[in-house]
Amino acid sequence: MKNEYSIRIIYIVLMGFGFPIMRYMSLYFDPLNNNAIRFLFGSLFLLLICVFKFRSILKDCLADPILISKLSLLGLLMTANMYCFMNGLRHTSALTGSIFGILAMPLGILMIALFYQDERRKIQQRTFYLGGGLAVIGSLIFVFYGNQATAGNESADFIHGAFFLATAIFIQSLQNVIVKDIATKLHVIIISTTTATIAGLIFLALAIFSGKINQLSVVSDSLLIALALSGIYGILSGMLLAFYIVQKQGVVIFNLIQLLGSVNLYL
């Protein structure tokens, strides 16, 4: 139990830094290039761990067509999620992204409760619905006044970003359902490695096809290195730790921890 609390605290702290880092990188890189570099370097780091420690498990996983299809679907959802999220941050702010993270909490919990009885038992308290409702209302008020505080093109830009963030949290809710299912069969490092690799390759293909990849030629080497390192940081904190918490403690606990992580950004 003590170890579980330590993991929760580590995740909250790391995610508190994660939003500003993603927001900063979104200002200098197109979302396709941004996600391609971050996911690929993050997946390469995890792949090295898999080769030395989980090689046999990885081979067994690749031989299971049902498992491969679920991992592929998870990779597609992760791709859509991060594309929308990075676009949302680009047009709003790290704080707005954190607010939408609060909105994701009740949505994600209600979504997972539809599929899993053990998760439903965790939300059979009136205080959960009261707290979730207050979080949603407070977040919507922030979004409304954030929109009112801007004008003209900035207002339209905020609405554009808010739409992407709302889409991202909906996709994330679906994503957690699949993660919970796969996490009963695979180690979280395997799940994280395959998901990040699939998402990274999709983003790379889209960047090449759209011609956005050419923008990387005018970016400084130091900024590219920073993006690659932020990718490793993001995969370890935002994916590996997240999947671990879902596997060991459930989606309801994970979403409540995300709520604390979002509040942590204010501090």
From TrEMBL:
<dbReference type="Pfam" id="PF00892">
    <property type="entry name" value="EamA"/>
</dbReference>
<feature type="transmembrane region" description="Helical">
    <location>
        <begin position="158"/>
        <end position="179"/>
    </location>
</feature>
<feature type="transmembrane region" description="Helical">
    <location>
        <begin position="95"/>
        <end position="116"/>
    </location>
</feature>
<feature type="transmembrane region" description="Helical">
    <location>
        <begin position="128"/>
        <end position="146"/>
    </location>
</feature>
<dbReference type="InterPro" id="IPR037185">
    <property type="entry name" value="EmrE-like"/>
</dbReference>
<dbReference type="InterPro" id="IPR000620">
    <property type="entry name" value="EamA_dom"/>
</dbReference>
<feature type="transmembrane region" description="Helical">
    <location>
        <begin position="35"/>
        <end position="54"/>
    </location>
</feature>
<dbReference type="InterPro" id="IPR050638">
    <property type="entry name" value="AA-Vitamin_Transporters"/>
</dbReference>
<feature type="transmembrane region" description="Helical">
    <location>
        <begin position="223"/>
        <end position="246"/>
    </location>
</feature>
<feature type="transmembrane region" description="Helical">
    <location>
        <begin position="9"/>
        <end position="29"/>
    </location>
</feature>
<feature type="domain" description="EamA">
    <location>
        <begin position="10"/>
        <end position="143"/>
    </location>
</feature>
<feature type="transmembrane region" description="Helical">
    <location>
        <begin position="66"/>
        <end position="89"/>
    </location>
</feature>
<keyword id="KW-0812">Transmembrane</keyword>
<protein>
    <submittedName>
        <fullName>EamA family transporter</fullName>
    </submittedName>
</protein>
<keyword id="KW-1003">Cell membrane</keyword>
<keyword id="KW-1133">Transmembrane helix</keyword>
<keyword id="KW-0472">Membrane</keyword>
<feature type="transmembrane region" description="Helical">
    <location>
        <begin position="186"/>
        <end position="211"/>
    </location>
</feature>
